[in-house]
User: What shape does this take?
Amino acid sequence: MEGEGENVQGDGEDAEFESLNLLYSRLIADFWELQGGIGYQGGIATNDYPERYFGVISLLGLAPIASRPIST
Assistant: This one.
């Protein structure tokens, strides 16, 4: 679960979520994972933003540093 939002302590208002993603992650190689799931964007506690639902596909990884000098 991954979310993004805002909450100011002591202002008397509810917390606001701007986006919420529910993802499944699968390791496909060393240092690489494939994620997929569903996402929601909009005001969960308020109606400030239009609601929308969408699919999420992500490839997340760390590539090794491979530097080769260029000769001219």
The radius of gyration is 19 Å.
